[in-house]
Each structure stands twice: as C-alpha cells, then as structure tokens.
Amino acid sequence: QVQLVESGGGSVQAGGSLRLSCAASGRTFGTYAMGWFRQAPGKEREFVACINWSGSTTYYDSSVKGRSTISRDSAKNTVYLQMNSLKPEDTAVYYCAARRSIGIGTTSTDYHYWGQGTQVTVSS
To answer: Rounded to 5 degrees, what are φ and ψ at 110?
Structure first.
C-alpha cells in the first residue's frame, strides 16, 4: 500500500507561482511512476503531468507545458509540481497519484493510488 499526502496549494494571483508537494509512504515509492491530475468544479479530472520511476522521463499536458515542472526526490519519497505563470483556468483541486509501474501514464486508470487533493485558486 502507498499513502499519498499533497501540500502546497493555496490562493495566488494570476502570474504567480506555487510548488505542490506529494509525500508518499511505503518502501516501493522508488519503483512507481507518479502523476499529477486536477479537477475543476463541474469538470472531469484531467491529467497534468507525470514522471517515471527514475525521474528521467516526464510528460506534460499541453495546457501546462512550459509553465510547470514535475520532479521527484526518492530520498524524501516526495514528488513535486512547480507551477509558474499561473492562470485563472488553473484553478482546481490537484491530486497526486502513484502508478504500480516504472513507466509513465497519462490517464486516471493508469494509476492505483491517490491522494486527497490540495486546492489551487488563481485569481485574475
């Protein structure tokens, strides 16, 4: 079992930055690919970014590419999402997810464990 706890959300003005963190429990974190998803009110959960087990491969949705960076620190069992140049449309609950595979995944069904989410609100 893996437990995921997100932190770092908050309220910022457009153009600002936030760094989300996801702390994972469990000895197998280093062998799991990780992802970030988000869900805005009235919308379905959508993919944001993912990273493979070693950190050598990352992938981003086009809506955040160039503005966001996903990274991981296996020594701390933590994955991060640095988000810059935030826009009001980035407002959502952001979820961290773990995939029982070393390779990346871009859909919700690729992931096996989920955190409870952290709210990001961007005002114009």
So the answer is: -75, -15
Name the β-bridge partners of 18: 83
Strands (E), 40-91: 46-51, 58-60, 68-73, 78-83
**Pair 60, 82: CB distance under 8 Å:** no
Mean pLDDT of the chain, nearest integer: 96
φ/ψ region of 75 (left if φ > 0, alpha if ψ in -120 to 50, else beta) reads alpha
pLDDT value for 29: 80
Torsion 106-109-111-116 (CA) sign: positive
* Parallel/antiparallel/unpaired status of strands 18-24 and 33-39: unpaired
